[in-house]
Amino acid sequence: MRWTRAAGRGLLAAAVALAGYAGLGAPSVGQAAHGGGRGPITLVTAGDLTDYLDPVLEDWNRAHPDEPVTLVELPDSADETRAQMVTSLRSGSGRFDVLNIDVAWTSEFAAAGWIAPVEPGRFPLESFLPPVVDTATFGGRLYAVPYVTNAGLLYYRSDVLEAEGEEPPRTWAELERLAKEVAPEHGLEGYAGQFLPYEGLTANATEAVHSAGGSLLGDEGATVTADSAATEEGLRFLVDGVREGWIPQEALGWKEEESRLAFQEGRLLFLRNWPYVYAQANGEDSKVAGRFGAVPLPGPDGPGVSVLGGSNLAVNVRSEHPDTANDLIAYLTGEPVQRRVLTEGSLPPVRADLYSDPELVRAFPYLPTLRRSVLTAEPRPKSPRYDQVSLVVQAVVHDAMAGRQTPGRAVARLARELESVARED
Ligand code: GLC
């Protein structure tokens, strides 16, 4: 069946009704079948790269001995995490009660009827940064609660730029010049991001395209907008980097962690990565501790545009203990844990007031930059077929960066393949 908005709503309504969520506040299957909906639960998440979750959940478990939460950590690649969650959800399993899902997947999980609509009044949405609440909604309805937000930053070696009397770059041309000329003089590679074909590459490519004023899809995935000179300009930035050698070839195989290690081993002048890197690269095992800074991503004529990253907490429609699941979400999104998300997890919280908390700004001087980056970040396209959209973007952009296709041809192929996803039966 062709995906249309109306059909989508129909499917959604059917899935929602089947799952026992015909109306807001209606009980879930779990609640109806097991009464009360309280008891032990499981929280599933992508890899906890900063190891902060265990103590947070231990505190919950001490306070809730009859409703303990078990943490299941999946691999640290966004795509593998999604694949494992989807396999479990498709089989109708209630094993994962609370799902910490990438903001990019909310639409797909909601449209498939795997996650339960959230009662908007139950969580203090008004205290969250506005763009993050939008990532948790699909078809005008809230399906998850924002938990962690994210925006790409440009990390730079402040020691090297200071020695050269240079400022951190604000434009692509400045970044290219420094990456081409200054980096080799200091025995460094120029620039890297996350360029392995997976969601990280989709994020990096979308940032380049948006920064150049282009876009990929509109209208919750229904229209394809990729075929433009701006999209080509965005791809050309990445393709030229590899061709001209200021993006190292090996970066075509890097995810977040590989690129972070290259930077903190002192091999890169510039790195595009998420804020968690800030604390890690200042850690004891980092060769660049105290010798780097972070600025907004550059673009063609001035600051560029980050994609909005992060994750939302959702309840599996098959959960047998949805009341406990919702309480855990309230705990994780409440002020005390949100503070720990930043101070112990080095991740950007979703609660707006923390960004201007003087004590936190002193401890995390990049907070104002991060706040600006999150507020100006653009979401990835919302699409019930986002998984396929992302696979197309990854494949095309990786081919172009590897020199197998010119940016012009890559844009034509991108538009053609995205059209076929949008039209798919
Ligand atoms: C980060 C972001 C997430 C993004 C992923 C890509 O985890 O928070 O939104 O999809 O990186 O690798």
TrEMBL record:
<dbReference type="InterPro" id="IPR050490">
    <property type="entry name" value="Bact_solute-bd_prot1"/>
</dbReference>
<keyword id="KW-0813">Transport</keyword>
<dbReference type="InterPro" id="IPR006059">
    <property type="entry name" value="SBP"/>
</dbReference>
<protein>
    <submittedName>
        <fullName>ABC transporter substrate-binding protein</fullName>
    </submittedName>
</protein>
<feature type="signal peptide">
    <location>
        <begin position="1"/>
        <end position="19"/>
    </location>
</feature>
<dbReference type="Pfam" id="PF01547">
    <property type="entry name" value="SBP_bac_1"/>
</dbReference>
<keyword id="KW-0732">Signal</keyword>
<comment type="similarity">
    <text>Belongs to the bacterial solute-binding protein 1 family.</text>
</comment>
